[in-house]
Every structure is written in structure tokens, then in C-alpha cells.
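User: Need the bound-state model for protoporphyrin IX containing FE:
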Amino acid sequence: MPDAVTKRAGTGELSPASPVDWWALFADPDFLKSPYKELKRIRDLAPVHYDAVSGVYFALSHDVFRRLAMAPEMGRDTRLWTAGWNSPRNRDEDPLSYELFSAFQPQMTNANPPDHRRMRDVYEKAFRQTDLEAYMPMIEAECGRLINGLPTDAPVDFMEAVANPLARSIARIVFQVPPEMEEQVAEWVAALSLIGNIMMSPAEKQNALTALRAFKAYLRERIASGIDRPGEGFVGLALAAFADRTMDEEESLNNLVTLMAGGTAIATLVGNGLLTLIRHPAQFEKLRSDRSLLRPAIEEMLRFEPGGSFIIRVAIRDFQCGGILISAGSLAVGLVAATSRDPECFADPDVFDIARQPNPHMVFGVGPHICIGKALVRMTAGAAFTALMNRFGRIELAGEPVWWTHRSDQHGLHSLPLRLGNGT
Ligand code: HEM
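Assistant: Bound-state model below.
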């Protein structure tokens, strides 16, 4: 069947072409609202799919993606993706994408060894749980401020009232964004967050580029103002690393932008997590009566309804995986919602079990690039769910939640209407 087989240039190996129309799938609102059933069907066909249209590989099996993501042959430098936005080949074909992704390229997220470690070491120490504890009183106070004031006599949209403001507060508390800049930083972050959306429009790319330039100009000014002391706080760490030449200016600025933008993902975790608890009342009750389950419950919320859809790698060299050859210069995408429900790894994967142990989901990624903010996320989500359960004995849906259907890289809620009450 010649149509189903694609000859990979330069390797002589054959990769069977996926029968799935991936790009139609990523635009399908029903899939974006709940991708699990369809991903199960596709994973049952094969653990890795090669999309002959785009040349992208999609990994759905937990084991295969884990091996692929950790392999030294697979990196994160998007300049090596031969068909990619900021590959030299794209400079003339799509100058806007080339400029946007080139301007945002120099940072740890997009770096291969040894540059990745050089940059990650600058921040890693500040993200240890013991160091983050210092922010906890402020994070808890913020959760209390947002949650304790919610009305009990009228429905409330949890995303608008709690989840989204909480994500913004993290930028203020952890990265010391001054109150007068909060709104502006949130706007830049919103424009930049679309960068993960592989179906981003030219207008969105132009917006993101404008936001990136303005964000960097603000950080450059802030650094010059001397407010931040070298080595203290996240901006101070970047400053010290710039001063001692561990990182150059572009790397320092792009890393800070990504860190400040990372907080927004907290909104999807608390929103998706709360909806999942409400839809599983016995599990919610179990958590209320045994708060020691909060930590595994948050892991299960992450696994069951993950906010991020894709984890990417770019092949530095050819790599054989899951019966397929991933050729050098190709993009491989791990589909988080598929790996998180893989029955080879999770017993009864479609069951939401807050006591699930072990729970080796890869929602924060895996290997050297694993999310640097994961301890902060777990602590913040813990504070938010604790405040909610302390304040309200009754948390119910007041209408249909609305999922985002405008982007495939994030699975989050536009609105979550709730009715809250004191009693049980
Ligand atoms: C629920 C919330 C979050 C989720 C699900 C999440 C998920 C992820 C994932 C999947 C990766 C890529 C890992 C890989 O390639 O193997 C990542 C990397 C990263 N995340 Fe997060 N993240 C979250 C919150 C945050 C926060 C709050 C911050 C910062 C304050 C942050 C900063 C970063 C950075 C800087 C990287 C790149 C690390 C590297 O390349 O070494 N993330 N995250």
C-alpha cells in the first residue's frame, strides 16, 4: 500500500503514514473539549504516528514518549527542526514566524546541552520547595482573599473570580511585578502564551512579537533601575548571571519572560481540577474528610484532566522508537492526554482516584526539561483547594462549564459557573 508508507529522506527507513487527519482533529471543538476517547482509539492503532502531511511524529504511549523525551538524540532546540518556524529554511518563506521564534529562541526551554544546564542551574536553586516556602504565607493569603469573599447568594464564575486572578497574583508575589504593571504584564503574557498553539494565526504572531519586544524592554529598564539586587529573587538571579556572564542579555530576558508567563498554567490546574472533583462527588467527599490525600489528589487532577496538551522534542540525530524511525531534524510531539491515560501504565486510566499510587504522569514533562515550576504549582494548588474546602461545605455547578475550543495546545476552561454554600 504505497500511499500509506512514506520514504524518509536520507535514512532509507520507512515510516508508516498515520491514517489520522491530525490538523482536522486539533481544530475539532468536540476533541478539544474531551480528547480522551479519540486518543485511546488512535493509541490502540499505534504508539507513535507519523503525519506525512507535516512530517511531525505524535507519541501517545507513556513508555514510548518517556524514552523518546529522555533520549540524548532528542533535544529541544527548535532551530534544528528543518520545517520549523525559526529554521534557516523558513527565514524567507515566513519571515514573521522566523522573527518571532528567533527572538524568543535563546532560553533554557529551547536549549540543548550544554547550554540548557548552564541556564537551568541559574534558576533551579530558587525553585526548590524549601526556598519556595518563603512565598507560602503570601500565596495562602491571596487564596484566602480571592476565595473567602466569594458570594453564597448568587452564582459565581470560578475562572474569572479565582483561577485567573490567582495565576496573575503569582507573577506579583513570586516575580515582584509591581501592582501598576500587573495588568500590562498579564496582557503581554496572554499574547505570548499563544506561542504554544501550533495553529497560531499571523495576527496572533504579530501580537506576540509586539508583546515580546515590550516585555523585554520593560525588563531591561527594570534591571537598569537597580530595584533588584543581584542574586536575590528571580530577577536578581538573572541579573547576577548576566553580570558574571553565565547568560547573555537575550537569554536572561527570555528566561525571565518564560518564567513570569509560566504562572498562567496554574489557572488550568485549579479550574480543571475543581471541575473534576465536582464531577466525582465521592472522591471530593473523600478528600474533604482526609486532607492528607490532598497531595496525591492534585497529582490525579493533573493526570486526569491535564491543562497542557503537547510536549515537544526535536531530533538531533535519527532515533528509533516505538517501531518508527524519527529522522534527524523532525519534530516529535508527546500527547499528554494520551500518555496520562495509557492502560499500560495506569490501572483503570479513566477512573479518577485521588489516592492513586503510584502516579507517574508526565504532565510536567520528563527528563532534563521537566517543569522547573512544578513545586510552586503543587504548593499553590494545595493552598487554593485547602482555602476552598475550609470556606465552603457545598460547591456545585451552577451551569455548564465552557471549555476553550480556540487552541489545541492548552485544555482549559473559559468559565466554570459555581453555586457555593456553607453547609454540606
Ligand atoms: C500546572 C502548571 C504547569 C504545567 C502543567 C507545566 C508543564 C510544563 C511542561 C510539560 C514542561 C516541558 C517539560 C519537558 O519538555 O519535558 C514545562 C517546562 C517548563 N516550565 Fe512548566 N508547567 C506549569 C507551570 C509552570 C510555572 C508556574 C512555571 C514558572 C513559574 C513554569 C516554568 C517552566 C519552565 C521555565 C520550563 C522549561 C524548563 C526547561 O526547559 O528546563 N511552569 N512545564
